[in-house]
Amino acid sequence: KTLGEKNNGFDVLYHNMKHGQISSKELTDFIRERVTIEETYGRSMTKLAKSASNFSQLGTFAPLWDVFKTSTEKLAVCHLELVRKLQELIKEVQKYVDDQAKAHKKTKEEVAATLEAVQNIQSISQALQKSKENYFSKTLEQERLRKEGATQRDLDKTGLKVKKAMEAYKSFVEKYAAAKSEFEQKMAETAEKFQVIEENHIIHMKEIVQSYSCSVEETHVQIGEVQKEFVNNMENTSVENLIQKFAESKGTGKERPGPIDFEECNVAAATEGAKP
Amino acid sequence: KTLGEKNNGFDVLYHNMKHGQISSKELTDFIRERVTIEETYGRSMTKLAKSASNFSQLGTFAPLWDVFKTSTEKLAVCHLELVRKLQELIKEVQKYVDDQAKAHKKTKEEVAATLEAVQNIQSISQALQKSKENYFSKTLEQERLRKEGATQRDLDKTGLKVKKAMEAYKSFVEKYAAAKSEFEQKMAETAEKFQVIEENHIIHMKEIVQSYSCSVEETHVQIGEVQKEFVNNMENTSVENLIQKFAESKGTGKERPGPIDFEECNVAAATEGAKP
């Protein structure tokens, strides 16, 4: 509503459609780059979880590597889940890019008449200016001849030229009024059209951003839960518990070896068995 | 307290110190790997923020790239701040690795006497078994000679051998009792020492894990704030606002071009100025 009220406003609006297409492509690029970053992060986390599971299974600390491994794997899943969601979103954005290009093509056809009206008023405006200049110069010429005392015949001839110039000028004033009315009507419709296109573009772009933002937030909440679980699992594994676990797996027995007493050789018993 | 109550329990505890050193080195490796991952992520985010700032400054969506840029930069800072904190932590863990190695070396010296007592009781135990076997075999030999009706001279000779074998056997039973007492005392002290070492190790390791976890959590909270700010900034930029901003920067004027009326040529005025 605040645009296009001079003859070159149409141009600005017409070319602005192109910026709409650029911005939706750039948004795809931005999300795609974010996907790459999250994918790299997720894969690195998977690798880190594997490292944790390859660490020594001996010693008192060993059971805690399981906590690290599980938590790191879950962290990887969170980020790879975000990757999956954003890849879905990219598909949607690409669909929008295509739809937008089609819509813009259609609009360009629809506003062709407006473009004609713009070109028409611009050329009539120039012609009007020229005809006005011609009428003024012819009138001054007539005045000059009158002052110089020219013949009636010359004055009549010039008078005819002035009349013709004035009629041409008047005709362009009328044509201009008609072109202006046509232009204003077409331009109002077109400006409305462009306004709707632009509003829809921004609304759609903001929806995409919101969907992006929503996925990122969901992932953030999930990561928070993984982190909380990690802290709980660490806290639940007490020092006593770890020492106890170690003792149970490595313990060499709970009873002390008994004393060894002197045994007299019982010949009868000894000859029965082969050895004492 | 549940360990080392058999003669080879000492060995298990002694070699377990090594696992303590392995686990602290592995924890350093784990944190270092996480640092690398976070650094890569942070740098990629910095690059992504730069991409956002290089996107088109034209069109209605353009002002939103600033929101993306600022938010992505802040996200990068969060992760790079985590990198800094974890690098500090790695320094602490490395100090612990060194201190632990020194403490273990000192402990190995302190338990040398226990190792000796272990070896002593093991060798006496074997000698005792041999001397018992010898006493039993000599006694059976004497019985065999008696049954075969050997001379008194031979029986006396064998009787002396039996007496000697029994005395040697009795002496090992006594030596074993003394070695056992020595072993048990030393082993009790040493098991206590190992228990303290192990408990301190786990306590220290859990402190490191807690510090690690704390830094990760702080970063998570910061990222949450950045995300919240992003959502707010997006919501605060309405569609109307973006259209308005665009109109102000690109607008070609708010007033409609006026009508063009026919002007009669005023000769007096026209001759004053050079052109109409």
Walk me through this protein's architecture:
2 copies of one chain form a homodimer. With 276 residues, chain A is mainly alpha-helical. Chain A has one domain (9-122, 184-272): Arfaptin homology (AH) domain/BAR domain (Substrate Binding Domain Of Dnak, Chain:A, Domain 2), CATH 1.20.1270.60. Chain A has helices spanning 9-54, 62-110, 112-147, 152-236, 239-250, 267-272. The longest helix of chain A is centred in the C-terminal third of the chain and has 85 residues, at 152-236. Chain A is rod-shaped. The termini of chain A are far apart. Chains A and B meet through helix 1, helix 2, helix 3, helix 4 and helix 5 of A and helix 1, helix 2, helix 3, helix 4 and helix 5 of B.
